[in-house]
Design brief:
5-stranded mixed β-sheet, 31% helix, alpha/beta, 2 domains, 274 residues, Cobalt-precorrin-4 Transmethylase, domain 1, binds S-adenosyl-L-homocysteine, 18% strand, Methyltransferase, Cobalt-precorrin-4 Transmethylase, Domain 2
Amino acid sequence: MELPPFEAGWVWLAGAGPGDPGLLTLHALHGLEYADVVVYDALVGEGVLKHANSSAQLEYAGKRGGKPSPRQPDISRRLVQLAHEGKRVLRLKGGDPFVFGRGGEEALALVEAEVPFRIIPGISAGIGGLAYAGIPVTHREINSVVTFITGHDASGDVPNSIDWAAIAAGSPVLVIYMAMKHLGKLSACLIDAERGADEPVAIVSRASTPHQKVLESTLGDCAAAAVAAGIEPPALVVIGEVVRLRGGLDWLGALAGRALVADPLGVKSRVKAG
Ligand code: SAH
């Protein structure tokens, strides 16, 4: 297969997917095979980095051990510097670089510095990670709209710009990234906006890794349930009837012996009864 050559002095800004190295794209894998330097984030798993060529320099650009993360301008400056040194720079981010990943900011810094770059999309955790929990983000009988939300903004608070009433009324399925810190507040905002406290919720942590955990709960109870179950970030919260499909689609659970039901929404049994 013809893949584009990784040229010296270029930055490839790539998504690594949610964790399972099997979810890397061929372009990302090719980048790992040819990079001189891999600048990676906290959410990029070890299993992914193992695919880097043995002479690649691995540079960590995330939070570690409670130390503050490098400032975004510092990371962008570093990418420019490495490219100017003539390196093949693979900037590797968890999930997709353009989904709550600041990929746009880094790419614009490259534009400003006239560094040539390629964008390699990845499987975002809010789609592929949920698929590993057996939850499709759309299902024809349930929703024709899905909304991706971030649970906090640059200041660390729930973003002010979110129109909860509009989202609650218009989007049957909500997928919240970075939700754990403010889960109580987020669910209260939705209940205030007239979403049902008994609506199904799933919290999926470390999706697609060997440490994946899934907690099923309800909108009213999920914040307390997450604390009680000791669920830690990175985790996604998905709200809506699609969560019920997990009863039939938890294919990973099935590998571990869980029985799947063919009609998790109870549609066929309702039709029969009616
Ligand atoms: N660019 C990434 C998102 C980065 S924001 C993407 O497209 O997936 C960081 C948030 O992503 C985390 O707080 C968490 O909500 C979510 N996330 C990333 N990887 C995850 C994983 N393996 N399991 C669960 N959530 C994950």
